[in-house]
Design brief:
The structure is a single chain. A hairpin with a 4-residue loop joins strand 2 and strand 3 (about 55). The chain has 17 helices and 13 strands. About 45% of the residues lie in helices and about 10% in strands. By secondary structure, the chain is an alpha+beta fold. The chain has a domain at about 95-295 and about 335-415: Cytochrome P450 (Cytochrome p450, Orthogonal Bundle). Residues about 1-10 have low confidence and may be disordered. The chain is globular, with a radius of gyration of 21 Å.
Length: about 425
Amino acid sequence: MAAILQVKPILDVPAPLRASAQPQDPSFYQDPYPFYARQHASHPAFFWEEYGHWCFADFKAVSALLRDKRFGRDILHVASREEIGLPAPKAHTAEFDLTEKYSLLNLEPPDHTRLRTLVNRAFVSRQVEQLRPRIRQLAHEMIDQFEGEDSVDLIKAFAAPIPAIVIAEMIGLPADMAGQLLNWSNRMVTMYMYNVSRETELDANQAAADFMAHLRDVIAERRRAPREDLLSHMLTSDRNGDVLSDEEVISTAILLLNAGHEATVHTTGNGVKSILESGLDPQSLFVTAEQAEKTVEECLRFDAPLHLFTRYALMDTEVDGISLRKGDVVGLMLGAANRDPARFANAGIFDPFRTDGANVSFGAGIHFCIGAPLARIELQESMKVLFERLPRLRIAEPPHYGNVYHFHGLEKLVVEWK
């Protein structure tokens, strides 16, 4: 997951290069694409007033910056808080901060390399390919539970439980814990809202504390009796005497559990919405494995689950003529890059048959999403089953996106099929 980093504002920016959009304005977060289109047409590199940092919206720049070693997710390995004006940690979010301390998403080499190497093999394509039958089974089970109804919220009844159960089972937690995991995760994710309130921070911190307490109990049990699961693998992995601490295992497990379902839930909801609104025959989009892959990639491009990912400048540097100081934050606008008209023909049209398909929805470089192969398979299999079982599926109520701008996902998607 991607926390929004904010440091001291840069004030000496020419007016034409500044842009304003309030992240919590419903007219913006319900449809940020007109704002992106304006920036593409004028200044795809711009200073976003509300966030107080430079942002990059074009596909070429975002793709390059995701791989650029002058930028990183962490800054405190090369600078002190005082040096860059980073505020001190908040005492009332100490538990939440502990879950992020060893997060793969925030570490830089060599710590990132070490940790990723120890967990990577569970998520390689040949491993997750074996999960296709289980994903299809879960999709059928979810539909069995609501098929007799007149309508259903597809997010709650289908999109959310499937990836939560899959990642829980991979890590080594029971499927019936998925609801609790979703509760903890959803509360923790609110920490990434723009201008988050103290009340929200306290609740997210409590969710993090409860999540860690549960995992500590499970880890103690796994140390006594290891199983064939990812948690046991992380606890027993030994590379020349190098083993993961409990804190590293807990932080990694929480990241995998949270990130392992969050983007997939959003892409499922956003993707089903895009398909149903396109007027195309949904079943034709999954008729072959190759077409299913293209359809999922277009869903990821057209309405991405993550719209803003931040990096620190690790040194004084320059990008596209913009001078950046060590410690400055830059925003990489994944959702905007995926709609860049300089990269995609008819960028604002959902076209699962396009020949110029690509996206940056899973990032790139060393922080490329470790769960991308799993997410792609979950999306291909679950949506294929959904449209096979419910060929007359249609949207029953106007869908609304949640008020967490950069986590771009529907609060609910009410559909009917009779």
